[in-house]
Amino acid sequence: MLSVALLFVLGHTCFVAAQADTPVAKLDNATVYGFVNDYVSEFLGIRYALPAERFRHPQDPAPYEGTINATDYGPACPEQDSILSSTPDVAAIQLRDPALYSLPTVVHDEDCAFEFGNTLTYEAQSIRIVERSIALGTPVMVVSMNYRVSGKEIELHASSTYLLLSAFGFLPGREVLEAGVGNLGLLDQRLALKWINKYIGAFGGNSSQVMLWGESAGSISVAMQMLAYGGNTTDNYFQAGFMQSGAIIPVGSLENGQVYYDFLVDETKCSGSADTLECLRELPYETLKDAVDKSPNAFSYQSLILAYLPRRDDSFLPDDPLKLVQAGRFANIPTVSGNCDDEGTVFAVSQYNVTTDALFRDYVSEIWLPSVPSEELEPLWTHYPSDPSQGSPFNTSIFWNIYGQFKRMAAFQGDAVFQAPRRYFVQNLSEKVKTWFYLSKRAKNDFPFFTGSFHGSDLTSAENFLDDHIINFAVTHDPNTGNGVNWPEYTVQSPQAYTFPPTAGSLPIVTQDDYRKDPMEYLTNISLEYPI
Fold first, then answer.
1. Which molecular-function annotations from GO does this UniProt entry contain (predicted)?
2. Where are the strands (E) in 414-490, listed by range?
3. Closest by alpha carbon to 291, among 255, 257, 263?
4. How far is CA 482 from the centre of its chain?
5. CA angle 453, 240, 462 (to 5 degrees)
6. Cβ burial, residue 488 (10 Å; 0-12/13-18/19+)
7. Catalytic one among 110, 175, 215, 343?
8. pTM of the predicted model, to two decimals?
9. pLDDT in tens, 287-336
10. pLDDT in tens, 349-384
11. How confident is the model over 69-123, as pLDDT tens digits?
């Protein structure tokens, strides 16, 4: 359902406690009861929108009345290929908070490939951030939300921010464009941000100090919210962004994904309908979800060429993301953006039959870049050669090439989706706002060695080396923590990277964001002209 979750520390005078261990808040004419987890107050599963109608815009909730029991997450949104229980009604928010006055608010948005992820999945991470912020003496509130992703419909609620994407939230196609119902997952998120702006004060949060924080597709969603309506918005729902392994993506129009719309229509036997979109709306949930689950996903053969993801809809995203950034059409807020060194390794495992140079060329030209003329692809084969020592995991000589073109495939995919778009994003962003970049090489020497500093490895490290930076950025809009190593601002003239070396516990060093300069410039130029 569309809901939110909130976490915070006890003690805010806005709370009227029925019992010493029962935090209470007022929303409109309703009394909301949460619970205490150690010394962190939690409010879970608060609806931030009316129950979502399939392939239609989310709607504001009615004024709250009566008593709201906010002690359970409620169901997750439908997710692609998920084994978790889900429901088409998922609009909820979760809040975790130290219950102090006017707290900086971290809106946590985590999702995997716009296909799966929910607030419950990452509860421990949100609680950890709240507890660490208390230990630092700079307490923050964490809010997370469920929203529609590839396999899901949701009932909109306020919760620790998670982006769930898929056909339910990111259906592509000409019919979707003409009906004006593209990017519903992003619209769900926007409505949750509106809810936070209106109601977070009731829980002790500060609506004027909201930071969006995301990882993977959640991080991409943060970037998409910065591009919303071409940056031409006065709602001021958030004032900073912290992005891990994701920024803008090289996508074009909703029409570019027509093949996936047509697949669902054929698979569900809606092809004979006069109005195929309405037919998809009226299908039994399980029938549609079964068809969605047959669509390609991030770990299938076509990998990061996803079926369901944000695309230009001529409204929320009025142009291709790279072109919006090129034109400076984004929210002017301080931003941290980061990458792991080997973003593509986990996504390159599925192409194990691509064992020769010819097969690699066929794969890229047929699946990734079918609209690019063959002569314009020639530089790519040189920029991303067969030599395993030039591939990913980087700086590992000829080792860990688990199949013929694995390291080449991993280097290309990681740069095409994560590294090159991120670099273009921060280069343009830094011309207008304060910007910082980090590069994580943690996990480079860990088992299984072929994954290197894989996508998400900055989250899985037991040392949680980014937590203090995240908290300080939420509080001060500066990621520096006083650890003895200055994290310099990023500029085009001096593109510095705050780099975490492979050894766990080692201090970061400052390097230059100039690795694979020519290959990434080439990929950016191709993406501007031939978006996926």
1. hydrolase activity
2. 435-440
3. 263
4. 28
5. 30
6. middle
7. 343
8. 0.91
9. 999 999 899 888 899 999 999 999 999 999 999 999 999 999 999 999 99
10. 999 999 999 999 999 999 999 999 999 999 999 999
11. 998 865 544 444 443 334 445 466 777 666 556 899 999 986 544 444 445 556 7
- Active-site residue, selected from the candidate residues 216, 221, 440, 453: 216
Helices and strands (DSSP H and E) totals, the chain: 16, 15
> CB–CB of 3/159 below 8 Å?
yes
Give CA–CA dist 424/439, Å, rounded: 15
256 burial class (0-12, 13-18, 19+ CB within 10 angstroms)? middle
Structure tokens at 443: 């996990």
Q: What's phi and psi for 75, nearest 5 deg?
A: -70, 155
Query: What is the helix, strand, coil percentage profile of the chain, to 5?
Result: 35, 20, 45
In eight-state DSSP terms, residue 60 is: P
Which one from 108, 383, 455, 469 is the annotated catalytic residue? 455
Q: What CA dihedral angle connects 349, 170, 108 and 30, to 10 degrees?
A: -150
Q: What angle do CA 96, 98, 103 make, to 5 degrees?
A: 90
Distance CA 465, CA 340 (A): 13
State both tokens at 65: 């009345």
Examine the residue annotation and report whether 343 is marked as an active-site residue of this protein.
Answer: yes
pLDDT number for residue 91: 62
- Whether 216 sits among the annotated catalytic residues: the reply is yes
Is the pLDDT score of 38 beyond 50? yes
Mean pLDDT of 39-58: 90
Contact indicator for 80, 151 with CB cutoff of 8 Å? yes
Crossing angle (nearest 10°) for helices 517-529 and 374-383:
160
Lookup: tokens for 172: 């592509």
Which spans in 200-315 are helix H? Answer: 217-226, 258-267, 276-282, 285-293
The predicted model gives 472-483 an average pLDDT of 97
Active site residue 108: no
- Collect all residues with Cβ–Cβ distance below 8 Å to 159 and sequence separation of at least 6: 3, 4, 5, 6, 44, 45, 46, 73, 92, 93, 94, 95, 119, 143, 144, 145, 146
Q: What backbone phi and psi angles, to 5 degrees, belong to 489? A: -65, 150
pLDDT in tens, 142-177: 998 887 764 434 333 333 322 234 789 999 999 999
